[in-house]
Amino acid sequence: MSLHALLNRQTAILLVAIALYIGFAANAPHFLDAQTQFEILRVTAFTLIIALPLTALVIAGEVDLSIGSNYGLTSVVTALAIADWGWNPWAAALLAVALGGGIGLVNGLAVVRLKVPSFILTIGMLSLLRGLALVVTMGLSIDLPTTIVSSFFEAAGGMLGPIPAQIFWAAAVFAVTGFVLRYTLAGARLYATGGNLRAAVQMGLRPDRVKIWVFVLLGLACGLAGALTTGWLRLGAPNTGAGGELSIIAAVIIGGAALSGGVGTATGTLVGAVIVSMLQIGLVLMGVQGNWVQVCVGMLIVCAAAVEPYLRPDGALADWLRRFERKPA
């Protein structure tokens, strides 16, 4: 195998993940404990559930900064439906998913039909949705009574042996996203939409419809994450997901998706999510203050964005490696 083939983006982020794991294992107390490992997987799972459809949206050439607020609003609506409206928890979870999908539909229609740039639109939605979560709860958390019994709570926050239930939800989302992106016509249309919009239109594709559907799917994922969080914690807090956009977007960018569109993989986002989760938990175990953890995540995003042009197939590093391989021995 050529040196250029070995040193691609996927290999680079995998090496970063391995280096981080070894570094934290050697320096962070209790990092190798089983409880810590499963907590990393739990954090990764919640990140992945939203980051994977966000990867699809970025591949299509758009972005959604309101994901954390959508996640938070659907979480408190789940709690309201169960605690105040007397709904069955499964029905409340379906309501949250539908609400998240509806928000995604509004975002998609505004971007496609009204031609509002997704970056600007979703900044506004970030504030609007967070405000709604605070208004409907009056800024207070909603506790679910322990007298409410349902299989939903086990499905959302239980354990299968030593493995948290959220990992299985994330694994299902990963399997579906990976299959769609790699093997289906829908995935090919997605890459075509983000890679070359004019060519996609000339091929008879309907990029606007593709983008709307991906916005909807991302909204559905936010609703799912919100419902699972409420079921796990038995709590709906209006600040759920606040600042979570950073970690989710970090996983997508570190995983190799390009904000210019047309580039990204489910596997890359998985590795990116693991890196972000390890960083968050490992630094805390090393005694680093929480504010500095955010600084480190931000620096990682900047570094990933800075090296991305060099790791492209037509980037400077790839060109240098090709010339190096052509040199006579």
Essential attributes:
74% helix, 329 residues, two-stranded antiparallel ribbon, disordered N terminus, 2% strand, 4 strands, two-stranded antiparallel sheet, 15 helices, mainly alpha
Describe this protein's structure.
The longest helix is centred in the C-terminal third of the chain and has 27 residues. 74% of the residues lie in helices and 2% in strands. The protein is mainly α and 329 residues long. The N terminus is likely disordered. It starts with a helix and ends with a helix. It is globular and about 60 Å long.
Between the first and last Cα atoms, what is the distance in angstroms? Answer: 17 Å
**Helical stretch tally:** 15
Strand content: under 5%
Alpha-beta content class:
mainly alpha
Radius of gyration: 21 Å
Helix content range: over 70%
- Write down the secondary-structure element order: HHHHHHEHEEHHHHEHHHH
Average of pLDDT: 88
Set down the secondary structure blueprint.
Elements lengths: L2 H4 L2 H19 L6 H26 L7 H17 L5 H24 L5 H20 L4 E2 L7 H7 L1 E2 L2 E2 H19 L1 H11 L1 H6 L4 H27 L1 E2 L7 H11 L11 H20 L4 H22 L4 H11 L3
Antiparallel strand pairs: 1-4, 2-3
Brief overview, please?
This protein has 329 residues and is mainly α. The protein has helices at residues 3-6, 9-27, 34-59, 67-83, 89-112, 118-137, 151-157, 165-183, 185-195, 197-202, 207-233, 244-254, 266-285, 290-311, 316-326, and strands at 142-143, 159-160, 163-164, 235-236.
